[in-house]
Each structure stands twice: as C-alpha cells, then as structure tokens.
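Working notes for the structural subgroup meeting. M.R. asked for a predicted model of this chain before we commit to crystallization trials. I am recording the input and output together here so anyone reviewing the notebook later can reproduce the run.

Input as submitted:
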Amino acid sequence: MTERTSAVIARMPLIQHIVELLTGHTSVSLTGSRWSGRTTVLTAVIDIMRRDHIPVTVHGIGRALPLEAVRLALPTQVRKALGPACTASDVIEALIDMFTTRPGVFFIDDADELDDVSWAVISALHRTRGTAILATSFRRADEHHADDLMQLAHPVVNISLGELSLESTHELLEDRAQNLISPVVTGQIHTLAAGVPGFAVALLDAAMGSGVVFTEGSMLVAEGDIWSPAMNGAYETLLQRYPINLQEALEMLSLAGTVTLPTARAFVTQPVLEALHENALIKVAVKGDRTIVSVTPPGIRDYFRHQPPTPRRDRLTESMFSALAATTPEEVAALNSRFQARVSGGPGLETPASSLDAHMFAEDYTIHLATCRFTWGNAPTVANAIEYLYTQLTGNNDPEVVEMVLRDTDWTLGYTPLEEFDFRYLHARWLTSQGAAEAEVRAALRAEDDYAYQDALDTIMYMLGIEAHGLPDTFVEDLTEISTRPDFNGTVASGVLAAAYILSGRAREAVPMLDRMDDTGQLWRNYQVSVLRGLALAGVGEYAEAARFARRKVDEAVASSDRLALVGNAYVGALSLCLLGQFEEAYTLAGRVVGMGIVSIPVAFAVDKALLICQSVSALRTGRMSSFDSLREFACQAIGDSESVPFGTLDWADAASTLTDKDRDAAAHKFRAVAEEARASGYDFAADIAVLLSLLSHYDPEVAEAFAPAAERVGGALFPALLAARQASQFSDPDGIYQAAEALQMAGATSEAIRYFALSARYYRERRDVDGVHRARLAIRTVTAPGGGSTSEVDTLAQSSVVFTPRETEIVDLVARGLSNSEIAAALVVSTRTVESHINNIRRKTAAIDRDDIVAFARVRGAS
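Returned structure, recorded in token form:
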C-alpha cells in the first residue's frame, strides 16, 4: 500500500467531514505543520468531490506572478483559448462558463503562497456563485500574510491538522508495512514523530531498512530503542527548511530536555522561542505552577543527541552554561547533571515527569538508568544495586547487566537488613522471570541463620508458589499468624495475605488490612499497596470508584515517573471501565501505558499481559479490529503471566472475539472454560468475572441462579443489574429491562444503562406502549444531559458522545433499512472503509455489539 493511501485511511474521518462542509457550500481553511498531510488530504477530497463537482486546483507559486496560479489551474483548452495576455475578467468569465453544468469547487494548495490577483478571481466566484473553497496553508514564523480565506470567504471553517492518535498511527503503519506491528514499536514511532503521519511513515521505513525493526513470528518487533542512523534523513529534511538560528535553538533545547519557560527563554531568547512555537517546533504546557517547554517532534532530540561532537556543539554548550546563570540554583544543578548525562554518558539526575508526553516519560527512564549505572559503577553497594536492578527490571531487562550486578555487587561495603531483603527479593523475581528451577529461587531467598527477616523471605517464596501453582485452600491458615506480627515480617505477610484474599474473591477481608498499610516504604510495597487497594475496590463491586481511584493514581505515577504504579493502576482502571461498559475510555487509559516498554518483573502478580488483553478486548468492543490483532499478538510475547487476575490469559481475548463474531453460545462456552480453569487454581475473583461474561454472552437461568450470591459479593450493585438486564432481554420484558437500566445507571455503568433504556423503548414500541416509550426516551435524555444523574466522572465520555453527526445519522438510518456496508457506501458515494469507520464510531458512542443494538439505540435517541 502506498504512503498516500495509508495517510488517507488515517485521515478519512476528517476528509469526509471536509467533503460534507464543501458540499454544503462552506469553505475550509486547512492548516498544518510540515509532513502533516495537508496535500494528501486535499488530493483525497478532490478525488471524492469530482464525482459531482468541477474541481479547480490552484497551486500557490509565489506573489511575483499575478494571476498566473489561477490561469494555470484552467483546463488546457481553456487556457489556450484565453491566451497568455488574458485578464482577471477573462478568467472569471471562463470559470463561470465551466461551472454551468456542475458546481465548481476551488482547491488551493499552499494558499499562503498565492498571489493577490488570483485570490481576487477566486473571491469573485465565491461571492457571486457561492463557490466553496478548500485552502491549505502553513504558517511560517518569518512571514505574516493575512489569512486571505478567513477574510474573503463566508461561511468558512478553520481546521488545523493535529497529530494522529496512537490508534490511527498504528493503523497507518500497519497499512504501510502490510504486517502486524508491535504496539511498542508503534508507541515509539508515534512519540518520535509526534503523531505527524509523514514522519511516522519515514521513521518506520528507516527502522525497517536498517533492521532495528524486524519480523518475529507474524509481527514486526524491535529490541529496545528503535533509533537508527537511517532516521537522520527525515529530521535533516525538516531542519533544512528553517534558518540556522532556529536549528541551533532546537539543538540547545534538545540537549537541555524539558525545561521551564524562563530557562528556555534564557537559552534561545524570547523572539526565537516565539518563532519555534509558531513553526510548531516546540510544545508549551502548564503543569502545576510551572510552564514547561519541550521540543517537537520529540525525535528531533534523539537526532541531535546522536550527532558526533562538532565545534558548533561546543559553542552551543558554552552558551547554554552561560545562560544557566539566569536560572535558580536548583535548576542549575538539575540541568547540569541532566545535560552531562545526555552529552557525555556521565551521571544525570532523574528529572520529574511534568508532562503526559510519552517521550518525556521515556526520557526520565533513560536518564535514571544512566544515573544508576554510573552510581553503581562507582560504588557497587547493595543499596545502589537495588536501585539499578529495580530500574533494569522495569524496562531494559538486559540479562548481562542484571547478572553482572547480581554477581559483582560488593557486600563488604555494608548494607541494612531491609536492603538485604530487597536485593534477595529482586534476585528471586529475576530468576522466576527466566524460568529458573524452584531450588535456585529458594536459594536466592535463603539468608544467614541469624537474619531477622528470613520469615519475610519465606513468605515471598510462598507468594511465588501461588503465582506458579495457584492459591492453596490453606492460605489463610498459612499466612494469618505471621501477618499479625508487628515487625517487617508481619508487613510482608500482610501484603501477601491481602493479595490472596482479593484473588480468591474475598476482597472485603483484604480492605481493613490494606487500610493499615502505608503507601511509603520499600520499592516493592509502594506499587503493591496502591494496586491492591484499587483491585480491592473492584473486588467488592465498587467499579466506578475503582476507576476514579486508578485514574488518579495513573496521573500521580506519570508525574513521578513511577513505571510500575503506572502499569498496575492502568490495569485496575481498564478492568473497571470494561466492566462498566466504558470501552472507549478503557482503551484510552490502557493506551497511556502500552507501547512504553514497561515490564513488571519486580512485583508479584504482574498485570502486564492482563493490561494488554484488557486493551485488546476494548479494541474489539470499539471496532478497532486491527488494533485487536496486534495487541493480542503482543500479549503472546509479554514477559511473565497474569493468570491470577481477570483478563490474564489469551483465552479471555479469544472468548471476547467469538462474542463479537455473534456466536454467543460459543463465547459463553469459552468464558465458562476460562472460569473453570481460574477456579481450579483458586483464583475465584477472575473466575467470577468470567462467569458473569459467560452469562452476558448467553443467559442460562440455572447458572445465573447459582451465581447470584457471588455476583453480589464481587460485583456489588453492578453485576446483579447486568444479569437482570440480560434476563429481561432474553424474555423481551421492557419493564424488567427498564428497571435494570435504572440500576445500571445508579451503579455508574452509564453506557450500559443507555443501551438498555434504548432496548426497553424498542420493546415498548413493539407493544404499542406509548407511555413506556416516552419514559425510556426521557430516561435517555436524563442520562445523557450534562450532570444528568451520572454517578461517576467516568461517565463523561458517554454524556458527550451519544450525539450522532449528520453522516452517522444517515448511516444509522440506512442500517435500520437493512443495507449492508457496501450498499451504504454506494448510496452515499463513499468507500466501504469510510462506512466502516463511521459504524465503528457509532459503536463506540453506544456500546453496541451488533447492528441491531445500533438501530435500537438510534431509533430512541433520534426520536427523543
């Protein structure tokens, strides 16, 4: 597939929107940065519009040749008839003649380079005949032309080509490569390219050409950083378009990393900073009480950092250190350490992650890893080894480095009992991840006879046994006595016992234990307590509260660069949102983590694979089939297992896929098999959720009756409401469906509530119950109104997204008439892929599984 075709697919919703505006005689001003795809979008719109309109494509060729641009846009025979000495009036008359059979549309590429006379001609046709105009332009910092289109056209809409979403970038790259691509590769490219499609494609081509991205199985993958010298060309092409002062300013800011606005101003001066911003080469964001500045696309930083030393680099370095005098002493120290780590490989301080930008987060990790390497290399103490191992095991996972640290750490330099515990714990986690024999793991957890915390190490061995073999029936008896002790041994046992309670479906017994625990302390406990608290909320059925808690913790993890807390809490949030029916938000939350290259080797009951499967299921339910395939494949390759938690094995994804294929019986059978396997290992929390999903797939009254106590125990108000809705649906009972929808609304499952309110209205209509239909419509209006009875902030998406666009309304009507996607495409004169894109958007807005759900929802929503 060509680069242009891939870019068109990525921008198709926007292209369709522009077509709708132009067809309605609304002009469009389209602006974007370099390589953002302005010309590609323009060409795609022309291809669609030419079916019913006469396109006149004008290219801005500079202001020195008045009228020439619009004259060259005329057909050859018309241009020859007019001759080279034609006037503006001649061109206007020729265009009027051209537009007598079909309406015309002007398409202007590089409108900021169009001469004034050509603008006058186009404006005359627009004023007298209502001819719509699509003009693309790029704002340059050293040119300040008036925006002619915004001044001359009416009505006119200004559209800025923003960065592609991670999902759109993923689809673009897979179309380009004609292969599945690991989300980690997509995440790196998306970050390096800042979502600019042209850059993303160029970086993928370079990575594939240099071999840093390669095929493994059925997927393109990479080992670590995807940077290669082959990428230099893409950034050099960009940089050469700018004057030398902007290039040097970018190099300085790239070496400095993310800095505060006053520091950036001290480095490059205010006028240059403004020029960089106008050219979309930096991002400015407010975080707390600070305004920060970062280079974009972020790959520019990597480009400059990989360049060899030059006299210019020395001059810029000297200038930067001189400028540091204008900042605070604290920032001087931080910038100095950070700068040294980047340009010389020396020590560097970990920088605060003050932006949600993935590159900043990854940058913090790289710098911290370099700091750990430097610190441990100079002083291989146990304390320094712990920090280095912990950092390695959450990302790089370099076996040679890990083995070196385990082997060469100098215990004679001194250590505390807690430091010995952490070192042995991380050693055991590493051995487990490498598939070591149980005896070897046990040996790593065996200290000297007089070690004060040997009971804690034994508890860790017990925990590893739970991971490997399942939860024994005797876990309460095994752990309770030691968990009551007031020392560190008791603290560790309490954490393991709380986790066991949650995994066994007895989360209520874990809550008071977690309330007594502190979020601060040893590395492994920080993550453990935070994530267990979120899982406990979910385990007692407080899914809306669990989602709120997890999102807050994710924000905190990003702000503090806490990689493990980010993964764990993102999983809690994604799990809770999935069960609330908020699949779009679950997909987005999980997407903040997937692709960052974080792994959870240092922690028990790791959720890496479960997070991927949560996102893959969310992709299914929101119509992202390509993303589902890639995420599922990526989950196959994830380090470690997540079998103890919900969505922890690929069987969950396969069952969800079967449900999407409308084979409800088969899906229910697969979910029941998942439940049986989880229950056999003592993981009743996961088993109960799998049973619920089996009943939602295909309702079995006998199974539902047996499951009722567990549904209330682990699902709070949510699970019984979902089951009631499913039961009432099976018997086409509108009153029962309506009551269940009300219960779902109260439980915070707004999307599911809307869906069942719509279904109740459908059955009321079939019974000719006018009052019932009216009541259901009123309920939908109440739920979807701002603040309309929602019990959780996670419902914001549903409240804001249930309004269909005009095109979506058209498509829903055609679906209701029974037309297939290809028939709808033919009726609307669009591609089948465009129809599929609209239907996917409709599914996201309504939480619909199939076309019947869409119609049921839309009939009520449209009529209300």
